[in-house]
Amino acid sequence: MALDLTTEQKDIGKANFQRVVGQYLEPKSGVNRRDFMKGLFAAGSVVPISAAAYFGYQSQHFERPVKAALIGAGDEGGVLMGEHNPKYLQIVAVCDIRPYNQKRIFTGEPTGPRKGLNKVYGKEEAKQIKVYEDYRKMLEENKEIEAVVIALPLHLHAPVAIECLKAGKHVLCEKLMAWNVTQCKDMIRAAEENDRVLSIGHQRHYSMLYAHGLEVVNSGVLGDVKHIRALWHRNGTWPRTNEKGDVLKQPNGEIQLRDSWFPEIRQEDRAALEKDIKQHGYKSMEELVRWRIFNRTGGGLMAELGSHQLDACSIFLGKVHPLAVSGVGTRSFYRNQYERGEREVEDHVFVTFEFPGKNYYADAERKAIKDKDDVVVVTYSSLNTNGFEPYGECLMGSRGSLVVTEERDIMLYPERGGASRTTAVTVSAGPGGAPVLDTSGSTGGPATAAVATGQAAMGTGIPSRGYREEMEHFAYCIRMWEQGMSKQDRPLPRCHGRVAMADAIIALTSNLAMERRQRIEFKKEWFEAESKEVPDPEKVPEKI
Ligand SMILES: NC(=O)c1ccc[n+]([C@@H]2O[C@H](COP(=O)([O-])OP(=O)(O)OC[C@H]3O[C@@H](n4cnc5c(N)ncnc54)[C@H](O)[C@@H]3O)[C@@H](O)[C@H]2O)c1
Questions:
Q1: CA within 20 to 30 Å of 137's CA: 98, 427, 435, 474, which one?
Q2: Three-state DSSP state, 324
Q3: How many domains does the chain have?
Q4: What pTM, to 2 d.p., does this model score?
């Protein structure tokens, strides 16, 4: 296993990564990156290389922030509102059908990223933000809204985004892009026909950790990467208890588990919505609140978790499209027969992807095949019954391994047999000047020294996961588009529709492979927005 590192091993790996960045990337660009992580972590300090500078956007293009509305003020809407920068996006209205969430979006939570709009704007100013239950009414009554941020359940992404694009709004929609691939293509077409910015919320495209990780991978120090292991495991099997320690039960007598896909249904929401729930577009309160566990409203573990990590893996592999996928998904824990509640989506997935290696294609257009055996295998698993390892990705190369955990830590290790995890590295020039990992001074003492260097260099705290930067860049693109540039010169969000559609195709085709217990080869046309070919033509949204 590669993600289960001890604290000391982690510190050595972090220090290794930091040194490679300082020794190799910094001289190449002339930008001070040696302390980039320290700068990221230390809130309020001078950041040696800011995300805005790194990703190439600036707020100085802004005479005024983009007036925006949030549609879907639940858990993720709360994160986005807590993280947005009011210099870029000014929230003027929020919309949600659940009364509890309409309030929580303002009050936020005492800890964590959901700070609440009251804290971001100040309580008095936040009173100016209008609250709606119906997004159509919100758009109708507030013509000044330029953009919308959509954080709704998956089945609503495409219909609501398309409606907003047609109404002339720029759209930042949460991932997964859509419930099926036809909807992704419809979203891209709607954005293009209405000349609006469409951005999808795969935040890793704006994470400085991943960006620097990619630069290190591209430097070649890992050698040939033939395998990436990615996982998101967790354990929601413990029963919820109240303050007295009593196990909590649902009204039907089943035990409530601590699974985040099974959130509490608030009495306040039930009282307001349950009677007319169908008019709100849901079969039941349970489908509204626990939309992730139903096929009609969600897309299972691959859409919710796997899509993030396959996005990361394909970033590291140069955003190439995979060749094939096979897998097994089971619904083996959450079953009524064990009194754990029933669900339609899997609770465990194990998927294997074949990606093209560097020599797979003969040409840059990826038409002819040069070496069909040059394949990179990516394995992904998501468990709901064991949280032993943290979530992350591990790239295994012939000269080194790169490990990213929890969007927070990034570590580098040389290939050194059993000593890999405790070996410190520097970078030196290899044949032809290419950088190589140098372990010559790394036995005994230097490894311990590396720990100290690592701790000093990394600082403390949690780096930005990219949400803030993703929203800043979205606003920047909108303002730049207004400057009369030709279409080909306009900046696009780093995760624009065509990029995000590939992530959706990967996740949704994995679901098909598991459903059919088949190896499925990806077709080129699926990834072309102009083509009607999709992997899942028989999957059509169910109307109620
Ligand atoms: N980028 C990430 O890391 C990340 C993390 C978590 C969730 N997400 C995505 O964010 C989206 C929302 O997830 P969540 O965890 O916030 O779910 P959630 O259930 O907490 O929030 C969804 C909100 O939408 C509201 N809603 C439902 N139908 C509505 C309608 N017709 N009109 C107005 N409001 C409506 C619900 O009342 C709820 O408040 C999903 O697409 C999810 O995949 C992304």
A1: 474
A2: strand
A3: 2
A4: 0.94
